[in-house]
Amino acid sequence: MNRRTVLLAVGEWLAWWAGLVLLWLVLISTVYPLEWAVGAGAAAVTACAARAARRAVWR
Question: How much is the mean pLDDT over the chain?
Fold first, then answer.
């Protein structure tokens, strides 16, 4: 992998993660630190799955 490919992959993952965290925050009623941590962790796992699924379809 060259530098450009790595930056694009990181950017794509961050975009998925940010969108999913924002969705999590919109859907919960109150934002406590533990809920934020759980949402960020769940978004990280889901961002990995979304990126892998998109790469599988795109190839």
Answer: 92
